[in-house]
Amino acid sequence: MANAPFLRRVRLRNYKSIGECDVELGRFTILVGRNGSGKSNFLEALQFLSHSLETSLSYAVANAGGFASLMNRRASVGDLLEIVVTIELGEDDVAEYGVVIPEDRSFLVARHEYLKVRSVEGAWQTRFESKSGKITSMVNTGDLRFPEGRLLLPLMTGDEAAATVYETLRSVRIYDPEPAAMRTMAPLDGATLDADGANAAAVFSRLQGQQEALCTRLTDYLAVIVDELISIGVRTAGPASPTCEATPYVEKWLRFYFDRRAGIESFSYDEVSDGTLRALAILLAAMQRREDGRPIPVICIEEPEVGLHPAASAALVEALREASIFSQIIIATHSADILDCLDIETDRLLAVQARRGQTKIGPISEATRSIIRDHLYSAGELLRMDQLEPASPSVAEQSASTTNG
């Protein structure tokens, strides 16, 4: 499981506020920056690529508000929107998938789409490449025809590497749990957790039935975060339940059990705090499994600190770090308490900063890392002083970026 596919590198060009970005990710990555700095735009770029693969390029562009809302406002006429991801396929193999999107009202085809794979020997092989709707290179073409309105990668099911890349990218999930949504009538679909956590009861119920040990681990972490919590249960109401015979459909809801002085007390989902519901949804997002038992490859979480007591930050970070053994975890935060729980040597920290409306993303400088390692200041203290900034690229890096572009 530790060698499950994950996103090693992401390059963006002209996506919303991100004019240009080239960053390496780890299995547990933290994006840190002020409100409005562009953290969410980075995550949304991954989600946009996921939607483009799962539906169509046209639909994904329309769903995102149109090309004008996607394109960087500082881009010049003729500039293109580009997303390139490098994926660790296993112990040795690495794949690079890229899409270049033109400003075209039809959005039927990408200007450029390609997949290349590097083997253990270090040689790169192009599995396919297309330009403006024409396949220019393909391994094992067969009777494949270029799909109008679709990207080519989803059709490469016969290529193991391509299938892995597709499955990894289409499965990207971004979570920002909404307690209000978790308190409404929820859908019964428990295949994967909804972005707002609305179907948390159904997902938790399935996890209880299929992954009992994992469910216990989740409850243990939540018990550290929420005082006196000892267990979580799922109740069902509907035609088959004597508790709610008038309900024309089945509903699942959560109950939380607390060890109080007077004994064990239980509360339903609409009686516990917003912070408790959000913490549960975040843990569930990170630890959930698909129906076949496999983890979701990439989990992104927006501001996990919302509604969380600062003293509970360590438990949440430890839970997310543990979950990253199986799923890649990327969080966006501006919490100094979260940062103070990080291991600067193993956790990948990316600083996000907005300058004149343009987002800059990158690792913190070696000098800043040295300050943290030497315990002169913690990462959280530097954030409070507004001293966590992305390192400026070296002349060599700038030259390489220009050459690659």
> What portion of residues belong to β-strands?
25-35%
Largest sheet: 7 strands, antiparallel
**Spatial arrangement of strands, main beta sheet:** 2-1-4-5-6-7-8
Distance between the termini: 35 Å
Question: Structural class given helices, strands, pairing?
Answer: alpha+beta
Number of strands: 16
Helical stretch tally: 13
The succession of helices and strands, N to C, reads EEEHHHEEEEEHEHHHEEEHEHEHEEHHH
Large-scale geometry: globular
Uncertain residue segments = 240-249, 394-405
Q: What helical percentage do the residues reach?
A: 25-40%
Nearest-angstrom radius of gyration? 23 Å
Number of domains: 2
Q: Mean pLDDT, nearest integer? A: 87
List keywords for this structure.
405 residues, alpha+beta, six-stranded mixed beta sheet, 2 domains, single chain, 27% strand, seven-stranded antiparallel beta sheet, 30% helix
Structure description:
The chain is of the alpha+beta class. It folds into 2 domains: 1-172 and 298-303 and 340-405, no CATH class; 176-296, no CATH class. 30% of the residues lie in helices and 27% in strands. It has 13 helices and 16 strands. The protein has helices spanning 39-54, 57-63, 67-70, 160-170, 179-182, 200-210, 212-225, 274-287, 313-323, 336-339, 366-373, 379-384, 395-404, and strands at residues 6-15, 18-24, 28-32, 81-88, 94-101, 112-118, 124-131, 134-138, 173-175, 229-237, 251-260, 263-268, 298-302, 328-333, 348-355, 358-363. The protein has a 7-stranded antiparallel sheet with strand order 2-1-4-5-6-7-8. Strands 9-13-14-3-15-16 form a 6-stranded mixed sheet, sandwiched between helices. Strand 4 and strand 5 form a beta hairpin. Helix 7 runs antiparallel to helix 8. It is globular. The model is unreliable at 240-249 and 394-405 (pLDDT under 50).
